[in-house]
Amino acid sequence: MAVDSVNTNRTIEETFPLSGLDCPDCALKVEKAIKKIPGVKEAAVNFTASNLSLKYDSSLSLHDTVFSRVRDFGYDVGTPEELRKSVFRIKGLDCPDCAAKLERKVSGLNGVSQAQLVFETGKLTVEHYEEISLVSDIIKAIEASGYSAELEGVRTATPKKGPFWLSDKRAKTVMVSAIPLMLGGTLQLVSGLTPASILFYITTILIAGYRPARSSISSLRSLIFDMNVLMTFAVIGAAVLGQWAEGATVMFLYAFGTMLEAYTMDKTRHAIHGLLEITPNQATVKVDDGTIKTVPVENLHIGDVVVVKPGERIPVDGKVVQGRSSVDQSAITGESLPATKDPGDEVYAGTLNHEGYIEIAISKLYRNTMLSQIIRLVEDAQARKAPSQQFIDRFSAYYTPIVISAAFAIAIIPPLLGAPFITWFYRALVLLVISCPCALVISTPVSIAAAIGAASRNGVLIKGGSHLEVAGQISSIVFDKTGTLTSGRLEVTDVIPLNGYAEDDIVRITAALESKSEHPVAEAVIAHAKSLGLT
Q1: What is the rounded CA–CA span in Å between residue 308 and residue 321?
Q2: What is residue 483's three-state secondary structure?
Q3: CB 165 within 8 A of CB 171
Q4: What is the pTM (predicted TM-score) of this model?
């Protein structure tokens, strides 16, 4: 998880992660509700990146209000169970006693699990629950003590998640709510609609409908009419009419649909961030006395010299200062063949060193590497919606109020003219159920996110939905790299013997010389020798 904080004059800008977003319409209603909070100047929910960017008046403490509003809709800010480790560089410390007092003060902040301040280096390490204590709160507390603090990025290991069906709350809800629905349906088939079967149906409605009902209450408070309001009204109406089986089934299917949406986004949302996993968590650093030690990449500084052995990935961006090798940098440049690297040449984090030993002087911290910047650019570009997404957003803003108004008119006007109330009330409920815009609203964003995610897993980075849509209008494509349309693997096609040597002898000797190398040319020669049956 990451929180970026900028404090300029009286405006604070912060970005923090959201969890539980399963449709763009949900993201839009959360954004609208937060914008209505007094003191909030700007709010933008990025559905694809699943985060909230906020600008608000620095004189106000809005975290509790904003977080509470988000939770009212049934979503989480960050993940409460996970600790974030933030590192600050403190300036102005002049005595160990002052450092101890500051350490105790930060340790006592709400949401801080542990704080450790090293006086000699001015390095403060804080473990805190991000949803309770944001980085900006910690910096404010430090500044209030008369010191200045600068945040250093810290790379935290992403906890391993279990299967979606066992780790996601919505999936658990669907599986649990399915049990009483099946029991109620079975009992009704055997004995008819009995109080016991009704009790099972009510159980399904309460379990599957808790999140939609909670979200609809928050939506109505903010005068926002969304699909959760539609479904809640429909199920309440079904219960009033005694249609318990229909109400339970509708609510279960709605919960099942949102779970499928969440499953789709769970697979695609993190596809681009998965590229970061190719970057090592640790680096081998060459110390002044000539020894080497292994340190986390977040502890590296510009100018440090890291050692990269054959077959290892390069941990950070830098320049080669010693050694010579070939580096597979297809993840950055798209070039299929390794590039030869000599002293003075630039290398990039996440690229693979092939056969040579090299030493690299760091030129960028790990959070500013070329790969990190590319991922940030793609993520920011996704916030700029494609034309089709903009149309869907505008459509959904008017669609739901119109449907609710139409259903209300169907339920009220005909009975006023003498028609049976129950019949037309039932028809109004049918309209509410069949008019749920979930599929329409989520179709475009999920398609775009899935396409960008699939492309990134195959080494193609697309900077947002607008660029993806433009690709559909392309009639001609020009390719300039080997490996784009081909496999990019070298093969021996011809052997031309000279000076009386036999072809088999040349291949055997060359393969023997290349047998210890991992270079693509060497692999091609060795493969050719094997194909000829040579040892």
Answers
A1: 12
A2: coil
A3: yes
A4: 0.52
